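Both lines are retained for reference:
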Amino acid sequence: MARRRIKRSAKSGLPPGTLVHIGERRAEESRITMLRYEGEHFEERIVPAHQVVRPPRDQGGVAWYHVAGLHDVAVLARLGEVFGLHPLILEDILNTEQRPKIDETEEYVFLVLKGFVSSEEPTGQLISEQISIVFGPNWVLSLQEREGNRFSTLRDRIASCQGRICSQGADYLAYALLDQLVDGYFTVLEQMRERIGEVEDAVLQRPVPATLHAIQQLKREGMFLRKSVWPLREVVSRLERLEEPLIRPATGIYLRDVYDHVIQVNDAIENDRDMLSAMLDIYLSSINNRMNEVMKVLTVIATIFMPMTFLAGVYGMNFKHFPEIEWVWGYPYLFWGLILVMGLSMFAYFKRRKWM
């Protein structure tokens, strides 16, 4: 059953900060998962919205609240009240068509990002969702549109206390979330490149209308991917330049690494766009060449039959005095002899000139 999609025009005329979910409802219900860790201590549980509590500033460890499903305005309003989020921040979270951005205050940093996966269908089309991240001194709030947790790998690392993440703060957890999203871009680009290779083979062998549809689909996905990733350069750059206490210098080093990865992703997207544009040109050229070949064959056939048609028209006239009519061998020798000689001569001439 098709899901109802709320358009941005639904907010027309409403005051700024009005909480209205914009986009498609992609989860049955909003679910909040709380993870808290400090060193080797790890705690995880599902919590209802009314039990969400902002940890005191002097409390050790990191509290990570992950929300799956953004359509429940009441849940978002409750989270905004607990963590002191500005109504405009909540408005951006609920608007799933928001471009990547960053906002910072003295209490928290707010990020809007896009996450991508390839569908399991044979076409492997691109599926996107909006990811919002808010983090403060010792807490992180992440929100995604779909059910399930795309950060399960990161959760397992925290649960098993692998790597340095257990000994770091909320800024490092925010970096880890951002890094996992960017790594997912490389996976999506690899899958897109495989599809591009398949379409390229089809273009070079025997393009059909379905090939053009595949090229256009890939171009649309590439444009959307670029639109979602290109602003991320400025987001990561500003995040890296933030001063303490929200971003520590030790975390800034890792953010610079993410920035380099974002540059690589953008370069790969541009290369894929150039390849698709070239493939479209090759497709159009191949179609034109095939059409020219067909027209050439038809022209040669018409040229060969043109003198034959002339002879048939001449001897088909209703005149009484045709000297050849009185000749016994006029029809088999004269008429068919001329037709065969002219046809074979023109065929041999076209062959010699390599027009066939």
In short: Residues 296-352 form a domain with the Methane Monooxygenase Hydroxylase; Chain G, domain 1 fold (CATH 1.20.58.340). The mean pLDDT is 84.
